[in-house]
Amino acid sequence: MKQKDSIKKKKQKQQKEHVLLYKLLYSFMTMLVYMVGRNIPLYGIDIDAYSNVNVDAQSILLQAISGDMKNCSIFIIGLWPYMLASMLAILIVAIMSLDHTRKLSPKKINIWTVTIMMIIAAVQAYHKTQTLMYRVSGYELIWNKIIVFIQLIAGMLIVVYMCDRATKYGIGGKVSVFMVNIVSGMMTMFTGKPLEKLALPVAIGVAEIAVMIVLETTEKRIAVQRVSINNIYADKNYIAYKLNPVGATPLMFASAAFLLPQFMCNGLHYLFPDNADIQWWMDNMRLTSPLGIVVYMVIICLLTIIFSMVMLSPGRTADDLLKSGDSIQDIYAGKPTKRYLIGTVLSFSVISSIIICICQGGPLFLQFGGYVDASLAMLPCSIMMTTGLWISLYREAEVYRNMDRYHTFI
């Protein structure tokens, strides 16, 4: 009996010592399943009609969300409904948290997120079934559309489930899916392009790698005086805020948020096909139009500021310091501390959002002057986003690598 217990403990110890390896393998399997699924076409679709795809900034952005540039696989809805529902849930929580008497349980927030996600997915799946090209017609077409609708919903749920499992058992969660889509899009942009066309976009992309590294590694450390610790150690107790407070998260969600006005324009065009104003908005709400690029940049700015204030919660941090009796050096506790922390996070988020917008919007505007090929306009943006995601994945992997270094000695 004792021998069995010792063997069991030894196996548990070995498992704990290889946390990073297991998580990497799980993430790899998740990405493998995802890559296979995004190459499975929908039932009854005319594949030949989607053989020639126009590669531009808009199609690359769509691929980052759906993973399928041809837009005819079972995963074409992708994470868009889930990401949009998550953003709406974050906004609802932020608004309701202004009333300190109201408490929201994580279970209720999750129910809201899933409900909103299913509504958005159903509407988008219906829109897709009406716009896809089919091989059949007449009575068979009705059943074909029903099957495709079910496939689209099921594909979206599979992607969300895989990301949820990857968050729990792997590394990165939905970031790993985004990485697959972005890298695939970059490979598409590189394919068949001469060196003279690649030179400027790649050079801009390399510069943006340096910018993203600076944004991700630069931080401000605010010394905190703890009542439970001798103040000579105050420099070792601090609140750290990065220059880019929430990393590449706004860039991921901006891709999803930018599709919302497009989706609304497409819906209005479906209801009013002869309206010229709606047609104009639908044609210009793209990354191949100056208006679409400006809207995309505004979305990045807003999401960076909102996510920074909601996810870091500097006001709540100030309240926690006040309750525990701790304080920031040379700043009074209470409202002065709250104003200081909120001002710090707000200023950092504004600065980083402006820098990111310049890096993202600059190459997109260069396509109109002919300086950058339209099919390569999104390349520097993709390189910058990939850098931010890689830094996020590296930091998470580093945490699990450090866990593997600890060994039990009893």
UniProtKB/TrEMBL annotation:
<feature type="transmembrane region" description="Helical">
    <location>
        <begin position="109"/>
        <end position="126"/>
    </location>
</feature>
<dbReference type="InterPro" id="IPR023201">
    <property type="entry name" value="SecY_dom_sf"/>
</dbReference>
<feature type="transmembrane region" description="Helical">
    <location>
        <begin position="292"/>
        <end position="312"/>
    </location>
</feature>
<feature type="transmembrane region" description="Helical">
    <location>
        <begin position="340"/>
        <end position="365"/>
    </location>
</feature>
<feature type="transmembrane region" description="Helical">
    <location>
        <begin position="146"/>
        <end position="163"/>
    </location>
</feature>
<dbReference type="InterPro" id="IPR002208">
    <property type="entry name" value="SecY/SEC61-alpha"/>
</dbReference>
<keyword id="KW-0472">Membrane</keyword>
<keyword id="KW-0812">Transmembrane</keyword>
<feature type="transmembrane region" description="Helical">
    <location>
        <begin position="74"/>
        <end position="97"/>
    </location>
</feature>
<protein>
    <submittedName>
        <fullName>Preprotein translocase subunit SecY</fullName>
    </submittedName>
</protein>
<keyword id="KW-1133">Transmembrane helix</keyword>
<feature type="transmembrane region" description="Helical">
    <location>
        <begin position="371"/>
        <end position="393"/>
    </location>
</feature>
<feature type="transmembrane region" description="Helical">
    <location>
        <begin position="175"/>
        <end position="192"/>
    </location>
</feature>
<dbReference type="GO" id="GO:0016020">
    <property type="term" value="C:membrane"/>
</dbReference>
<dbReference type="GO" id="GO:0015031">
    <property type="term" value="P:protein transport"/>
</dbReference>
<feature type="transmembrane region" description="Helical">
    <location>
        <begin position="198"/>
        <end position="215"/>
    </location>
</feature>
<dbReference type="Pfam" id="PF00344">
    <property type="entry name" value="SecY"/>
</dbReference>
<feature type="transmembrane region" description="Helical">
    <location>
        <begin position="20"/>
        <end position="37"/>
    </location>
</feature>
